[in-house]
């Protein structure tokens, strides 16, 4: 089997997740270099996962002729530039979401990727969660007939720091974007219209950072289905991740994953464990599976299952939701600048 050398750009939380998957579970891949503007963090991750080189300058990875692919885990505002630099050097690309915060910049970036004939995958890891993948496959098999209604609940246990919110694009682009991608993926139809409502109900500091912490978004799909997504920055009981899809022949739903599944019943009622506490616990397997599929696509020259166009469409929905909130009206996606 062909061995692949890669570089990781970004040694923060998600960079460590991908480094661990590659180092311990994907023997055909070797991480040659990790880059981060915090050189101490890069050094620490390099030592932890036996990565030979670390650097403060991501261009050392881009310019290394031995490195075939890059894993981009840096802040959102750096993604498009790094993607363009990597594509021009012929590197295959895995990039965490979103590609950028504007449709124009994403379109420009994807054009460069296409012109240089490199593969690119966007980090929509929830597609590869075993539970959600089961729902996707059952819908595809026609088990519920024609999809009519989709409900997604996505609530974090704690809000991110205010500095993150200021540069992330806000709730619709840094959090709900996963749910927008899942909606397209599960229903297997494009979103045509979006209406959103949002408020600050948890932390006034989030308002000061220019964002909301609670939202409901309604989606109209090309095939006629209707979706609702509710998001909250804080659920005191843990990481709340549920999906329900209802169709002409039945319904499928997924409840939260828990550390263990006992239910204790006594005179006061039913008692069970809380949901897993955060995305690192809830989606451990999906992070590995998405990286495995990226590597398989490079080794076997197979299809990328969450590509740049998926990244673009999810951002379009997020921007439509943001505009809908600002203007208090439904937004048709074809009215956005392409």
Short summary:
This protein is an alpha/beta fold.
Descriptive overview:
The chain is α/β, with parallel strands linked by helices and about 350 residues long. It folds into 2 domains: about 5-120, Rossmann fold; about 125-285 and about 315-335, Dihydrodipicolinate Reductase, domain 2, CATH 3.30.360.10. Helices cover about 40% and strands about 25% of the residues. The protein contains 13 helices and 15 strands. The strands form 3 sheets. Strands 12-11-7-10-9-8-15 form a 7-stranded mixed sheet. Strands 3-2-1-4-5-6 form a 6-stranded parallel sheet, with helices on both faces. Strands 13-14 form a two-stranded antiparallel ribbon. A hairpin with a 4-residue loop joins strand 9 and strand 10 (about 225-230). Helix 1 (about 15-25) packs across helix 12, helix 4 packs parallel to helix 5 and helix 9 (about 175-185) packs across helix 13. It is globular and about 60 Å long. The termini are far apart.
Instruction: Estimate percent helicity.
Output: 25-40%
Number of helices: 13
Q: Class of the largest domain in CATH?
A: Alpha Beta
Number of spatially distinct domains: 2
Q: What gyration radius follows from the Cα positions, in whole Å? A: 20 Å
Our measurement of the CA-to-CA distance between the termini, rounded to an integer number of angstroms, reads 41 Å
Broad structural category: alpha/beta
């Amino acid at each position: 089997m062909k061995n692949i050398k890669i570089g990781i750009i970004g040694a923060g939380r998600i960079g460590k997740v991908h480094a661990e998957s590659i180092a311990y579970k994907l023997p055909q891949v070797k991480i040659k270099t990790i880059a981060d503007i915090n050189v101490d963090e890069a050094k620490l991750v390099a030592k932890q996962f036996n990565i030979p080189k670390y650097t403060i300058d991501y261009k050392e990875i881009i310019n290394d002729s031995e490195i075939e692919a890059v894993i981009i885990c840096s802040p959102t505002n750096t993604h498009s530039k790094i993607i363009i630099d990597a594509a021009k050097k012929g590197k295959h690309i895995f990039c965490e979401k979103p590609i950028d915060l504007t449709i124009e910049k994403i379109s420009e970036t994807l054009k460069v990727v296409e012109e240089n004939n490199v593969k690119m995958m966007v980090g929509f890891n929830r597609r590869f969660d075993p539970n959600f993948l089961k729902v996707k496959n059952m819908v595809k098999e026609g088990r519920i007939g024609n999809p009519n209604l989709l409900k997604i609940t996505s609530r974090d246990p704690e809000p991110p720091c205010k500095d993150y919110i200021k540069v992330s694009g806000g709730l619709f682009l840094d959090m709900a974007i996963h749910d927008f991608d899942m909606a397209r993926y599960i229903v297997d139809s494009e979103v045509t219209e979006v209406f959103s409502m949002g408020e600050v109900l948890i932390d006034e500091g989030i308002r000061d950072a220019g964002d909301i912490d609670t939202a409901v978004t309604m989606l109209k799909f090309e095939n006629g289905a209707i979706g609702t997504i509710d998001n909250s920055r804080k659920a005191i009981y843990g990481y709340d991740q549920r999906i329900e899809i209802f169709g002409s022949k039945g319904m499928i739903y997924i409840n939260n994953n828990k550390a263990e599944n006992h239910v204790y019943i006594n005179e006061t009622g039913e008692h069970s464990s809380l949901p897993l506490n955060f995305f690192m616990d809830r989606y451990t397997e999906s992070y590995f599976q998405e990286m495995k599929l990226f590597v398989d696509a490079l080794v076997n020259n197979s299809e990328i299952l969450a590509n740049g166009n998926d990244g673009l469409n999810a951002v379009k929905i997020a921007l439509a939701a943001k505009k809908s909130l600002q203007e208090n009206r439904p937004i048709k996606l074809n009215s956005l600048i392409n």
